[in-house]
Design a protein that fits this description.
Elements: H1 6-14, H2 18-32, H3 35-43, H4 46-61
């Protein structure tokens, strides 16, 4: 059983600005799909990475 009905999801997807979503995904993928960043995430303990994650979110995505 899905969380939302397909018609509700489609309705909300139509309201999204494709240019804004594309730009946000480019910023996201540039950072999080970087192999060096991925290795850093994998090698860090969760507690260590929480602060880094929040800082990176603020500086790279605002």
């Amino acid at each position: 059983m899905s969380l939302y009905q397909v018609s509700v999801l489609n309705q909300h997807l139509k309201l999204q600005d494709e240019a804004v979503v594309f730009k946000a995904y480019k910023r996201y993928s540039k950072y999080f799909l970087n192999p060096t960043i991925q290795d850093n995430v994998r090698s860090s303990k969760e507690e260590e990475y929480q602060g880094i994650f929040l800082t990176e979110q603020y500086t790279n995505f605002n």
